[in-house]
């Protein structure tokens, strides 16, 4: 203790302040109030370097950040008004999330009212039981199931008997890549064309299957999504749906019990329609995808350009993604990334259809019409994908680096194609040797105006990559004719367990053959997830970019702009060299928010709640009587399940 230097003292002082703040925030949490509203109102006494009181940040207690350079001395930064675009993006992320929090229904009454207003129908039969189930499992947002409604909407334009028939029979030809789950008399009666995926789905439905009517579920057992209905046909189906909306008084909250056309072992009912599968592995997926796009979109009009696509989802400053949803809209950006993602030009298995098929899938691109359900990998206990806190150290004890491990999947690897596959591009981009003579755009702090930043186009990331990235393949796979062409290209790394990866502050997540099963665990960790994907999943609407994770363009062109922001770069005042202040506080905050949020909305219970709701809505769609049934009550009978209203600070939110 005698050799305690000034820098360390200051660090400890800072840590003490952090501790007090965390304590205050936690006390508030225990009191059960809503987090964002409460934090907004806590005033934190805070003095900057000159001893001046500064007003607290409206959103979060702003802590003094400190600079950590390699000589192990700590230098507090002057508290400047940081105008980096990322602080603005984080503020917007917070606002979007606050709005989401504030709009939640708290009572059954409110929930059914909102349902009818939003979808123009009664909730389906069984909705009361579902609501109880969800509340008992502490559902966080009881309204946020719009993905289900969007996925199922077009099926209102198809006869129930036709949906039942397709669902019953699609599993029958093994090569079509479909498994079947058959529910009879409140039990999973049978699985057909079985495998680990459908076995996992079968476990997922166990907690509520006893309340479900008979149904057949057809599940995609391939990695890649399946259905793209052409635009005009989709518009017809959606219009048909609108004509069926009604909120009739006296609807019966009961399922029909005399329906036919389910799958039977013997004496199967005839198939009413052909699924229309065609095979197209390795071909340009945009040829299939663009048919699902609006005629005036870039994917169809041939007028695509990087600039026009970028304008929809990212900013020039630093190249940061402002709209994560649109960053994977293939109708806009598809033509620009069709040669940069393995699924889009080198997929290993595509069995597709242009017909609207009731096929349940784990992921899809924006123009697919598969019905999303929570991916089996998120539910199955698999060490490779499950969060384990062992190496998930406190933020400040983690390495200042970005890690990624995986195999060379994503499509068929050949010597001609590999350089443009999405995983391979990431590995090459993070390789300091390969990057030695490359230039990238990052942002640099304006020397004359501290806190202001400009684009800087000549950043050579070689040295930075060597120091701050740890990205590599563990194994070569899917190569044609064999993997020897990788001998001088990649150094294969030892397997690093998922938990060991959390020794790094930044965990980057990119697609494989399809979505990445690591994502829930990455969010659960205190490390900060950086995410690029072209795929949609069940959880998308509950995850907020720049609040719970950092979005990354599928071309990765702003990767170094992101990393230098969080890690910092250079020293102030060095001529002709970029300087970026270190933003460790922001990184820690995002990592923590992601982790806290994942423990509320990505639990196994959340998967069950989603699946239950999905199967209720699906059950109504396949019911011959679907226009007449539904829950028509006012919701007052479930008052005791009302969620607790957030307490206001004035009522004693904090001590
Ligand atoms: C099922 O029952 C309903 C109501 O009793 C009846 O209208 C309908 O025709 C029946 N359907 C079949 C296939 O028997
Ligand atoms: C493509 O762009 C050109 C020039 O801006 C425009 O005249 C043309 O109408 C566009 N084509 C389509 C199909 O929108
Ligand atoms: C990085 O690139 C160099 C040069 O191409 C190569 O020798 C090395 O194996 C690569 N490293 C990794 C981790 O792939
Ligand atoms: C990889 O594992 C092997 C065998 O356990 C070990 O000898 C080697 O040192 C490890 N390499 C690295 C880079 O950790
Ligand atoms: C993404 O954008 C589409 C089209 O604008 C919209 O329908 C959908 O709800 C959005 N999804 C999310 C998760 O925000």
Automatic annotation (TrEMBL):
Keywords of the record: Membrane, Transferase, Transmembrane, Transmembrane helix
Annotated region (Disordered), positions in chain: 46-67
GO MF term set: transferase activity
Superkingdom, natural source: Eukaryota
Annotated ranges, domain Glycosyl transferase CAP10: 336-625
UniProt KW Transferase keyword: yes
The keyword Metal-binding belongs to this UniProt entry's keyword annotation: no
SMART domains assigned to the protein according to its UniProt record, in alphabetical order: CAP10
Transmembrane segments: 12-32
Annotated protein name in UniProt: Beta-1,2-xylosyltransferase 1
Organism: Lachnellula cervina
């Amino acid at each position: 203790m005698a050799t305690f230097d000034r820098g360390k003292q200051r660090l400890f002082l800072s840590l003490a302040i952090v501790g007090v703040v965390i304590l205050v925030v936690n006390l508030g949490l225990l009191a059960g109030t809503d987090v964002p509203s409460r934090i907004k109102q806590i005033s934190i006494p805070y003095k900057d370097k000159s001893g001046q009181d500064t007003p607290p940040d409206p959103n979060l207690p702003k802590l003094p950040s400190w600079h950590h350079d390699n000589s192990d001395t700590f230098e507090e930064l002057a508290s400047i008004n940081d105008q980096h675009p990322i602080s603005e993006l984080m503020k917007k992320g917070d606002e979007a999330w606050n709005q989401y929090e504030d709009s939640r229904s708290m009572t059954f009454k409110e929930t059914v009212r909102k349902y009818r207003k939003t979808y123009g129908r009664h909730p389906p039969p069984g909705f009361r039981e579902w609501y109880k189930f969800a509340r008992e499992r502490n559902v966080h947002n009881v309204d946020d199931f719009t993905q289900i409604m969007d996925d199922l909407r077009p099926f209102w334009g198809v006869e129930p008997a036709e949906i039942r028939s397709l669902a019953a029979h699609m599993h029958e030809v093994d090569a079509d890549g479909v498994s079947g789950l058959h529910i009879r008399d409140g039990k999973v009666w049978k699985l057909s064309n079985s495998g680990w995926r459908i076995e996992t789905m079968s476990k997922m439905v166990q907690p509520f299957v006893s309340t479900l009517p008979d149904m057949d579920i057809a599940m995609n057992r391939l990695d890649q999504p399946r259905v793209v209905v052409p635009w005009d046909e989709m518009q017809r189906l959606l219009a048909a749906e609108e004509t069926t909306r009604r909120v009739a008084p006296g609807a019966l909250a009961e399922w029909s019990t005399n329906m036919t056309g389910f799958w039977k072992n013997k004496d199967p009912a005839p198939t009413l329609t052909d699924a229309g599968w065609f095979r197209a592995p390795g071909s340009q997926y945009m040829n299939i995808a663009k048919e699902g796009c609006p005629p005036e979109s870039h994917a169809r009009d041939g007028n695509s350009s990087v600039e026009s696509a970028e304008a929809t989802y990212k900013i020039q400053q630093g190249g940061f993604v402002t709209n994560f949803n649109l960053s994977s809209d293939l109708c806009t950006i598809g033509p620009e990334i069709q040669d940069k993602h393995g699924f889009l030009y080198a997929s290993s298995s595509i069995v597709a259809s242009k017909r609207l098929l009731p096929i349940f899938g784990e992921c899809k691109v924006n123009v697919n019409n598969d019905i999303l359900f929570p991916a089996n990998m998120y539910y199955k206990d698999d060490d490779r994908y499950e969060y384990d806190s062992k190496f998930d150290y406190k933020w400040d004890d983690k390495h200042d680096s970005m890690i990624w491990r995986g195999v060379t999947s994503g499509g068929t690897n050949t010597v001609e194609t590999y350089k443009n596959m999405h995983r391979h591009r990431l590995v090459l981009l993070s390789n300091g040797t390969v990057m030695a003579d490359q230039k990238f755009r990052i942002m640099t702090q304006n020397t004359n105006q501290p806190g202001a930043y400009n684009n800087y186009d000549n950043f050579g990331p070689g040295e930075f990559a060597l120091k701050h990235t740890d990205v590599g393949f563990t194994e070569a796979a899917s190569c044609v004719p064999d993997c020897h062409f990788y001998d001088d290209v990649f150094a294969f790394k030892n397997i690093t367990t998922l938990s060991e990866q959390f020794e790094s502050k930044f965990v980057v997540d990119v697609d494989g053959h399809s979505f990445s099963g690591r994502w829930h665990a990455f969010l659960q960790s205190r490390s900060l997830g950086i995410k690029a994907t072209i795929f949609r999943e069940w959880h998308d609407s509950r995850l907020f970019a720049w609040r719970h994770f950092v979005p990354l363009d599928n071309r990765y062109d702003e990767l170094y702009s992101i990393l230098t922001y969080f890690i910092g770069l250079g020293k102030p005042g060095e001529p002709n060299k970029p300087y970026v202040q270190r933003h460790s506080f922001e990184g820690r905050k995002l990592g923590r928010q992601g982790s806290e949020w994942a423990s509320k909305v990505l639990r196994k219970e959340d998967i069950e709640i989603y699946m239950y709701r999905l199967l209720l809505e699906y059950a109504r769609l396949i019911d011959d009587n679907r226009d007449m049934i539904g829950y028509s009550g006012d919701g007052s009978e479930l008052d005791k399940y009302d969620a607790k209203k957030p307490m206001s600070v004035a009522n004693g939110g904090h001590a």
